[in-house]
Write a structure and sequence with these properties.
Layout lengths: L9 E2 L1 H5 L7 E5 L3 H6 L6 E2 L19 H11 L6 E5 L5 H12 L5 E4 L2 H7 L28 H7 L5 E5 L3 H5 L15 E2 L6 E2 L5 E2 L3 H8 L6 E5 L5 H11 L5 E3 L3 H5 L10
Parallel strand pairs: 1-5, 2-3, 2-4, 4-5, 6-7, 6-10, 10-11
Antiparallel strand pairs: 8-9
Length: about 270
């Protein structure tokens, strides 16, 4: 039985500290090269956030190629018994996107360190500059469609009573005042709740405790299919993570996000 099996998806620094020596742990740092080099959690393996995205215009947020993912997860030492703990230093955007990637490869054993590097440091816990060796070469993966909404799928679901579209961008992007694609505005029916508004500034960017009530008030409820997006499915990594942590049974990331929707000739837009 795993040392992590009794824990919820979102864990505290003390939970992780007590399990740093667990053989099944793959600890993933999604900060930045400079931040990782300056000091990271003991045993953490750095994944450049750019490697979680395809990175090509107009929709850089699309899934990387299968070969890219197989190389990445091989370097991490991926195996069926692995338990991933992921963290970043921005409140959960990149870490949440990595959890979406784990869902895409069909691996359900994972946790998010609430508050990430900031909460770990605030507890006075140790950092290291030691870098673990790459674990190995590419590993075969099976990619699953369920965690991802394609543009075609989302368009086919517009107007459905059991659909909630969670737009994690800033209010001016949502309104169309700030335009960062061929078209400005939002997907028809989308509800705007900006990603950082879900972070508790007084608790080292941990997920706000009142998120269930906030989402209820917005109509983003567990009985609906929730599709979340931003511009590149980075900010909506956080909102995907929040919905997963709250046990929402039908949550998808729209990986194309506004980069795809706002640049496509046949997509409807509201302002």
């Amino acid at each position: 039985m795993s040392a992590f099996s009794s824990l919820p998806l979102v864990i505290e620094p003390a939970d992780l500290q007590a399990r740093l020596g667990a053989s099944e742990l793959i600890l993933v740092d999604l900060t930045s090269p400079a931040r990782y080099e300056a000091g990271h959690l003991p045993g953490a393996r750095f994944v450049d956030p750019k490697r979680t995205q395809l990175g090509l215009p107009p929709a850089p947020g699309l899934l990387p190629t299968q070969a890219q993912l197989e190389a990445l997860f091989g370097e991490l030492g991926h195996n069926p018994d692995a338990v991933y703990v992921v963290y970043d230093d921005e409140g959960g955007g990149w870490a949440g996107r990595f959890i979406w990637l784990l869902d895409v490869i069909g691996h359900s054993k994972y946790h998010y360190l609430d508050g990430g590097l900031l909460s770990w440091q605030a507890e006075g816990l140790p950092l290291t500059t030691e870098v673990p060796a790459l674990a190995g070469g590419p590993v075969p993966l099976t990619l699953h469609d369920e965690p991802t909404a394609t543009r075609e799928y989302l368009q086919s679901r517009l107007g459905a009573a059991d659909l909630a579209i969670w737009d994690a961008r800033g209010p001016t992007e949502y309104s169309g005042e700030k335009v960062v694609a061929a078209k400005g505005g939002h997907i028809p029916g989308a509800v705007n709740f900006e990603w950082t508004a879900g972070m508790d500034q007084a608790r080292n960017l941990r997920i706000r405790r009142d998120m269930p009530q906030i989402l209820e008030s917005l109509g983003i409820t567990p009985d609906k299919e929730v599709i979340t997006h931003c511009q590149t499915h980075h900010r909506s990594g956080f909102t995907y993570l929040v919905a997963k942590a709250l046990g929402y049974p039908r949550i998808k990331g729209y990986a194309g996000s506004w980069g795809e929707w706002g640049n496509h000739p046949d997509t409807p837009v509201e302002k």
